[in-house]
From TrEMBL:
Species the sequence originates in: Enterocloster asparagiformis
Entry protein name: phosphoenolpyruvate--glycerone phosphotransferase
Function: ADP-binding subunit of the dihydroxyacetone kinase, which is responsible for the phosphoenolpyruvate (PEP)-dependent phosphorylation of dihydroxyacetone. DhaL-ADP is converted to DhaL-ATP via a phosphoryl group transfer from DhaM and transmits it to dihydroxyacetone binds to DhaK.
Gene3D superfamilies associated with the record: 1.25.40.340
Gene Ontology BP annotations: glycerol catabolic process
GO MF, any single term: glycerone kinase activity
Length: 206
């Protein structure tokens, strides 16, 4: 299976839909030990995705992802804008203006988006950040069979597990780190929104 513009549109429409549906929940869990604005920012990014999709006229996936990433970086409201701008922009790294994405290239895109994130954060699995979902998702994608849907399903499942497992960790970044062991039992909002991102990509393709 090759992913071309129609598939990418469906995938990102679903990401936007899932993020909008869960923005209140994301803000609720973020408010326990953070600023409580994560869901608000995620909602803004979701609206931006829909706006960019509506304006997308050519078949250049690389340009679309670069533009979406750059625009997401500019969204105010905490760190979510720059973080997701980096992640989305990172997906474009292996692309070279082509109009379709195969299995190998999809894996490279996920590998590159993790690399882009690692350029701006030292967070690892266990630090209670979005990396708790992203790193397992990318590892699962890289190990999956060479089928685009199988790759996305593996990433979705691993990201969901990572977000769930973030409940048991102590926060080491951001405002939440001052709460130390009190953060155990609450999932990281960024890890949850990242798991929803991969769920949207996967469910959108289905």
């Amino acid at each position: 299976m090759l992913l071309s513009k129609p598939e990418i549109e469906k995938m990102f429409h679903k990401v936007a839909e899932i993020w909008q549906e869960n923005k209140d929940y994301l803000s609720e869990i973020d408010s326990r030990f953070g600023d409580g604005d994560h869901g608000v920012t995620i909602g803004k990014i979701a609206s931006l995705i829909e706006k960019k999709l509506a304006a997308w006229e050519d078949d250049d996936i690389e340009e679309f992802l670069e533009d979406l990433g750059d625009s997401t970086m500019e969204i105010g409201g905490g760190s979510a804008g720059p973080l997701y701008g980096t992640l989305i922009g990172g997906l474009s790294g292996p692309l070279n203006g082509g109009g379709a994405i195969g299995e190998g290239l999809l894996k490279e895109m996920f590998t590159e988006c993790q690399s882009a994130m690692e350029d701006i954060t030292n967070a690892k699995v266990g630090d209670k950040t979005m990396m708790d979902a992203l790193i397992p998702a990318v590892a699962a994608a890289e190990a999956a069979e060479d089928d685009c849907l199988a790759i996305l399903e593996a990433a979705k499942e691993a990201a969901a597990r990572g977000a769930k497992e973030s409940e048991q960790y102590v926060s080491k970044f951001g405002r939440a780190r001052s709460y130390k062991e009190q953060t155990i039992g609450t999932p990281d909002a960024g890890a949850v929104s990242t798991s929803l991102f991969f769920a949207g990509l996967c469910d959108g393709l289905k």
